[in-house]
Design brief:
It is a single chain. This protein has three helices and five strands; from the N terminus they run H-E-E-E-H-E-H-E. It has a domain at about 65-135: Nucleotidyltransferase, domain 5. It has a five-stranded mixed beta sheet, with helices on one face. The chain is an alpha/beta fold.
């Protein structure tokens, strides 16, 4: 019985130079086929600056000012507490007196959003279309 001799095998060698060549070809292909982001066309605008940006004055003779506070009672009309049903009647009365009446809704930052929507819906129901909204941050007066 003759057994095979154990011969020492050589470890396979990887030719690294050819791998680098293939990698360079792939890299060149990627660079050539990539589309570079072009600059988007833009318009240069110079907007006018407001001199009294924070000092908006709304005349109370033609407008209604509804304040919505974070704590109950939430709704106030020109400084007095009011319910949403009373507000609807006042909106209809003022719209009948002055068709171009303006409504300003001043809401605290933490005021319930549902109240803001309710006031807006009542105003739209009364036919008031000129509605402005302002957010009051605590500490602003």
């Amino acid at each position: 019985m003759k057994f095979l001799h154990k011969t020492k095998r050589n470890t396979p060698s990887i030719i690294i130079v050819s791998l680098i060549d293939v990698l360079m070809v792939v890299l060149i292909f990627l660079v050539v086929s990539t589309t570079f982001k072009e600059q988007l066309p833009a318009i240069s605008l110079s907007l006018p600056a407001a001199r009294n940006a924070g000092n908006t004055v709304v005349s109370t003779s033609k407008s209604l000012i509804v304040s919505i506070r974070a704590r109950a009672p939430h709704l106030r009309l020109n400084g007095r507490s009011i319910t949403i049903n009373e507000l609807a009647g006042i909106f209809e009365t003022r719209k009948a007196q002055n068709p171009s009446v303006t409504l300003t809704i001043q809401a605290d930052k933490d005021a319930p959003f549902g109240k803001v929507i309710s006031v807006r819906d009542e105003a739209r129901g009364a036919g008031i279309t000129n509605i402005h909204a302002q957010v009051r941050i605590p500490g602003d007066r």
